[in-house]
Description:
Elements: H1 6-11, H2 14-36, H3 45-68
Helix pairs in contact: 2-3
Amino acid sequence: MPILRMREIREMSRDEREKRLAELKAELVRLRTMIKAGGTIENPSRIREIRKTIARILTVNNEERRKRR
């Protein structure tokens, strides 16, 4: 799953963002669990990418929530 840019995230519907957010959180938990179990992951920088993408999605969600007020 490639990194999402802000433009791409803003173009998504709210439901699509929520679905992608859930997928990313699940992948992050899976990778962290793998590391805790003593394993190695193929691309360690993937964790950072996922965290940043989650933050971007949450930022867009918060922006939209503030606009509706």
